[in-house]
């Protein structure tokens, strides 16, 4: 049975208690085909281009990723790493301690 990422996020949110619903945070989740953002109020957002940027340097990293995406020879991990590095150069609240978790799509 296929797992629907957006439906799964909705179920997770419904099970959260009131305290967690008021948490002003965002969570980026993705699988091999879909990227989603879960907001603190329970909205599930799907970007048009599949790119997500959250946190203090998220806008900078997102802009950098959009600029790097058309460059041939750059895989997703390279784009993500370089985008966060660029964001860290611009935003004083973003550091260069980068850990990238990747999924095996096979």
Report on this model:
The protein has 106 residues and is α+β, with helices and mostly antiparallel strands. The chain has four helices and three strands. Helix content is 39%, strand content 11%. The protein has a three-stranded antiparallel sheet, covered by helices on one side. The longest helix has 15 residues, at 76-90. The model has no long low-confidence stretch (mean pLDDT 83).
Shape descriptor:
globular
Question: What percent of residues adopt helix (DSSP H or I)?
Answer: 25-40%
* Low-pLDDT segments: none
Radius of gyration (CA) equals 15 Å
Count every beta strand, where a strand is a DSSP E run of 2 or more residues. 3
Mean pLDDT: 83
Figure out the total of helices: 4
How do the strands line up in the largest sheet?
1-2-3
Distance between the termini: 17 Å
Strand content: 5-15%
Keywords:
3 strands, 4 helices, alpha+beta, 106 residues
Summary?
With 106 residues, the protein is an alpha+beta fold. The protein has helices at 5-15, 18-21, 58-68, 76-90; strands at residues 26-30, 35-39, 44-45.
How are the elements arranged and paired?
Blueprint: H1 5-15, H2 18-21, E1 26-30, E2 35-39, E3 44-45, H3 58-68, H4 76-90
Antiparallel strand pairs: 1-2, 2-3
